[in-house]
Structure prediction request, 587 residues.
Amino acid sequence: MRTPPARRVRNALAVTLAWVAVCAALFPLLDMAVLVARHALPALRFKVLTTVTSGIAGGLANAIAGSALLVVFAAVIAIPVGVLGGTFVAEQRSGAFVRTVRMAADVLAGLPSIAVGYFGYIALVQALGWGFSALAGALALALLMLPYVVRTTDYAVAAVSDDLRDASLALGVDPTTTVRRIVLRAALPGIVTGVMLGVGVAVGETAPLLYTASWSSFMPTGRLTHSPVGYLTYVVWTYINQPFAAAHALAYAAAFLLMVAVLMLNVAARWALGQRS
Amino acid sequence: MAVSEVADGWRGRPLAAGGATGLDGAPESMPRAALTADARATGARSAMAAEAATIADGGGAVLSAVDFHLWYPGLHALRGITLDLPPSRITAIIGPSGCGKSTFLRSLNRMNDRIPGIVTQGRILFRGTDIFAPQVDPVALRRRIGMVFQRPVVFPMSIFDNVAYAPRIHRLERTSAGMWVRVERCLRDAGLWDEVKDRLRRPASALSGGQQQRLAIARALAVDPEVILLDEPTSAVDPVATGRIEDTLLRLAGRFSIVIVTHNLGQAARISQHTVFFLGGEVVEAGATEEVFSQPRDTRTEQYLTGRFG
Ligand SMILES: Nc1ncnc2c1ncn2[C@@H]1O[C@H](COP(=O)(O)OP(=O)(O)O)[C@@H](O)[C@H]1O
Ligand SMILES: [Mg+2]
Prediction:
């Protein structure tokens, strides 16, 4: 059967528009990646990865280690809490508690990250007396990650077909085991996406860390409290404003490393998901 | 056993020496009091029966409903179902869409517990024990009364793991060799072994719909159930796959009590020994398949069978 000409024209138009939209979305991303890479690559020497910052120059070793420490620490807190909370809310389906958690997650997601930083400063740095520290910084980051993990887990678990739950329950498997072994497995791609989003946000945040982790040009000490920590976003944020070429180079190098880190996280997650099925 | 005897047993009196053990084997001539005492003695061997008061109604039936009602919010879906389901046979439940077949089937293993707002009244007895008694654990009950659904459902894991999933959770095998034996036996019983034996580690989602449905049957068999409930298991698969599933069920009859809801009258005639006709949430007619199909007692049954409604 032949496609009527009018429909063919409409098809072509729709396909063209779709491509325009794809380019419009991809162009700024690529443009930024190219800009960062062009400035960063000449400055990226192996020494940059192994030496600490000194003044407006030096390397990024302290910031790389600090970023990794803060993000891993935050993820270790936010992922279990977020996945458990999101799963619970999705399985409960309704009720006052469920509504409250969902609203709290939405409010938290909408909160400016500087507010989370300031809250961390008052509650953790001052009231609890932790001082500028890895613990305060990681908790602030965890608070920022949490809503992404909770909401995407909630959606992913709620989207799992009841057919799967029924099939497991009909084998005499209890509801908790059914959720753990079947529902979470089926929801895993969605949950991983949410965790990735959350980790990506945490990797890229500056504001919540300024008041909690502060900054340090030394390697992290291993002390959880009373010991400020350096991180890559601080270098990007501060050094780009310095009137020195060396500072700019370091800022671009830090931005480049952040970009690569987020990209690698995504690739790794996709690879892990691919391995499973 | 002659068809007429089965039909008599079907009418609510205990089946005459059906060859089954324990409660099911109680001869119909046994006085009621003796039957109850015997039931108690037998019940002591079965954990569930030991916990609950044993009632000897429908002595020959593996499952029986006694004036069972079910309401969804705003809908009286089952209106006083009284029915005995005989052991080790295939019972077909037929009737037009929306008459309550699935609702009844899901009541038998308490899958309806999951739906909020449901109200039930009356009793359903499994080997003499009311399944709604407070001491009955629905999770344990479902292990003994398995279920296969209309749409084929496979878990997002390998073919092998689909079958081994529940036995692992219930710790039915201590060794991996034992688990292999069990998985192979269930896949053979479900008539799927030859088709999948070389790709047991591949994702089950790659199987065809008909194969997925037989995998669901293998999975249900893997926990050693006593009863298997099937809700229109062939309505979503092609005729060849339907034939395979019917062969599978015929092979399993005798070892399990099977209850199958079907839209397909030919299927009911081909594989079942008993047929129940549902209409508007009530049982209109129940009896030996041969009799229900050849000489229905109720004109509504006759009308349904001749395609005049539904
Ligand atoms: N979860 C439910 N909530 C409310 N009504 C339902 C639900 N499931 C089924 N029903 C209604 O109950 C009646 C019987 O449904 P069902 O048992 O699925 O019929 P059948 O399997 O014979 O087609 C129908 O009117 C149907 O709309
Ligand atoms: Mg149905």
Summary: Residues 78 and 143 of chain A are 7 Å apart (CA to CA).
